[in-house]
Amino acid sequence: MNRLLLPSLLFACTGPAWAAMVTQAVPYEIDGKPFEGTLVYDDAVKTPRPGLMMVPNWLGVTPAAAEQAKEIAGERYVIFIADMYGKDIRPSNPEEAKAAATAVRGDRPLMRKRAQAGVEVLRKQGEKVPLDLASLGAIGFCFGGGSVLELARSGVPLKGFVSFHGNLDTPNPADARNIRAPVLVLHGADDPSVPKDQVDAFSAEMKAAKADWQLVSYGGAVHSFTDRGANVPGRNEYNPKVAARAYQAMNDLFDEVFTGAR
User: Fold this and answer.
1) CA distances to 118, 168, 172, 200 from 196, in Å
2) What digits encode the pLDDT tens for the residues 48-70?
3) Alpha-carbon span 186 to 179, nearest angstrom
4) Bridge pairing between strands 49-55 and 131-141
5) DSSP 20-38
6) Closest Cα to residue 226, out of 47, 101, 71, 30?
7) DSSP track, 57-73
8) Nearest CA to 135 among 254, 4, 5, 3?
9) Exposure string (b/e) for 37-47, b if CB count within 10 Å is 16 or more?
10) What pTM, to 2 d.p., does this model score?
11) Could you give the count of Cα atoms lying within 13 Å of 223 in the half-sphere of its Cβ?
């Protein structure tokens, strides 16, 4: 099996390894409030693997997010999908998702706290599944990409942070000096949700902080280019070629930083 596990290959897999993919609900609490994320891993792999805390798009913890996590995890990673809203908030349409995401984006300390809680829940999964606790990273999509960048700015000591078509703005650009690991931003060059001034401000922020960062801008791609369900031409649109390239870039970064962690 090709260990890059790009989307075009994953959905063609019908053998035992694919059948062994596990998705498991994981309840937890933050300040006494119930949350529930999803753990995704290949049960056929018995050796410890790196772990990724994943923040999904603004729809939150959904079956679609779990399928995306399966694509990424394959035989490579254990993934925990964090719940950024609380167990009682499960948006069912874009309007509800916008309201839930706006509430969290409007309170960056809360966003960071909930993302940090997701990291701690991932760490605890090492008691149940083979997880290399020296090799942990974070990834996020759209709203989740912005959340992961805020997590990086909070100074959490992970090995790497990857944002897919995520928001790049922050009310606290000076906090970039707290970043302790490489940051990779995978951006659609024609994304109307993340305009050029936001990209330029992020670049200036990273340069001022002397962070280890990369920004890859994919020509012809708009928002949600990894989301198979995105179908609003010119605004939110799945792009399989760009998605495959972005997943490759993510794997390349994690191969680099996790090899150094061992």
Assistant:
1) 30, 10, 19, 6
2) 999 999 999 999 999 999 999 99
3) 18
4) parallel
5) TEEEEEEEEEETTEEEEEE
6) 71
7) -TT-S-HHHHHHHHHHH
8) 254
9) bbbbbbeebee
10) 0.91
11) 19
